[in-house]
Amino acid sequence: MDIEKVNSMDFGEFVDVFGNVIERCPLIAAAVWSQRPFSDLEDLKKHFFAFIDALPQSGQEGILRCHPDLAGSEVRRGTLTAESQREQSGAGLTTLGADERLRLAELNAQYRARFGFPFVLAARFSDRAAVSRELARRLLCPSSQELRTALGEVKKIGSLRLADLLRADPAKL
Ligand SMILES: NC(=O)NC1=NC(=O)NC1=O
Prior knowledge:
Blueprint: H1 3-8, H2 11-18, H3 26-33, H4 41-54, H5 57-65, H6 73-77, H7 82-90, H8 98-115, H9 128-138, H10 143-167
Helix pairs in contact: 2-3, 3-4, 4-10, 5-10, 8-9
Bound molecules: 1-(2,5-dioxo-2,5-dihydro-1H-imidazol-4-yl)urea.
1-(2,5-dioxo-2,5-dihydro-1H-imidazol-4-yl)urea binds next to helix 7.
């Protein structure tokens, strides 16, 4: 899909296509639509990120809270979004053994108890060993730094999802 096609989309079409670039936060796509026309993918991405950066901390933490846990209950319930399902299965997080799943659940619970939002990591770049290693490492970070790190991961996930969409053939959308 080229950027001209993106710029020609009406509001509904744009939110249908880009509404889950940031997991379960269609409001961001709804807001970004009014910034069109976009010069290219980078420009589109910049507007998604600028919206996130301009939010108060409560809004930024709200974005994190919209993310399903990695290898969490939504994997088992089958309620993940299509994008998250692809990302998590790609990292081997949907086929963990009971011990590994329990260890991640415990680390996720400790992380959420410490920071008040879920552990977020771009699973596409990761694998099951790296996820638990990163979770254990970031659990020890100062809160202000960890919020920035987590939002950086949200942006990595968003960048990958945008790149997929712009490469996608409109006929398949
Ligand atoms: N808590 C998370 O990090 N969730 C996710 N990471 C991804 O890459 N996709 C997700 O749904």
